[in-house]
Specification:
Layout (H helix, E strand, L loop, with lengths): L1 E2 L8 E2 H11 L27 E2 L2 E2 L3 E3 L5 H18 L5 E3 L6 E5 L6 H4 L14 E6 L2 E6 L2 H7 L1
Parallel strand pairs: 5-6, 5-7, 7-9
Antiparallel strand pairs: 1-2, 3-4, 8-9
Amino acid sequence: MKIRIFSAARPVSLAGALILVSVLASPVSAAPGPNTPEGQVLPAAKEPVVIAQGGKPSLVIRVSPDASEEIRKSADDLARTLGKITGAVFAVEPGADAKGITVGTITQFPDEELKKALAIEEDYNGVEAYAIRSDEGRIRLLANTDLGVSHAV
């Protein structure tokens, strides 16, 4: 699915547009943020996460050193999409810590806060689950599986 942001913009993926909109949206108050599918209220961001400014990236895209080829392809797709949106060239780099724009699985980037949201139930429910969170100058696109990662991106 392709959408247009403004009339003169090139088509971009829906996921890329949603990330851009969610990242660029400034909090207007200290009111709670959106709810998760489980009904948990997410806190509002204190500061927006800037992904690019003036055609230059502010963050790199981070994948685990042991990321699969599928996850690397998803990260490359995200880099291309964000490049179309911002005019910046985003690097995809390996790393073990969740800095910048992190793309991977919950196993590669453990996060106690997201374990419950990404729990797999009844052998299959949640296999494709993913979570997108922005905080502390970073964006995390984490999932249970490679397929879930592709959905997050």
